[in-house]
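Async update (no meeting this week)

Hi team, since we skipped the sync, here's where things stand on the single-chain job. The sequence we agreed to prioritize is pasted below, unchanged from the tracker. I ran it this morning and attached the output directly underneath so nobody has to dig for it. Comments welcome in thread, and please keep replies under the output.
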Amino acid sequence: MSRAAGGNLEDEGPERLYVITGGRSITSTPVRLDLVTLIVARSRPKRGMPPEQAAIIQLCQSPLSVAEVSAYTRLPISVITVLLGDLVADNWVITRAPVPPVALPDRALLEAVIHGLQRL
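Output:
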């Protein structure tokens, strides 16, 4: 599966997703992942890896969010979080918190500056 031509799971039933996750709905390793958590591969995929995990590692050579990984692989977020948890536990990928939004100055300070400028 690549960014341009991901695997098409839309026509497949839930049995395929069950097989991909080994029947799990949560990862065995406690990993905090949300939609904007960035995923970065530590290396290239290894021959013999499950294809879904190899695709994730290939995609994440550059940082991608969990939501982007889900979109590119066309796998549900629930499946992606299980697979990512396994990859984190096995040190194939690392997670990064998203870049926090810039802290805005206090509203009262901004109003004081505006009033000061208006008096000029």
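Quick observations from my side:
Helices lie at 14-21, 51-59, 66-73, 77-89, 107-119.
The two ends are 61 Å apart (CA to CA).
Reply here if anything looks off.
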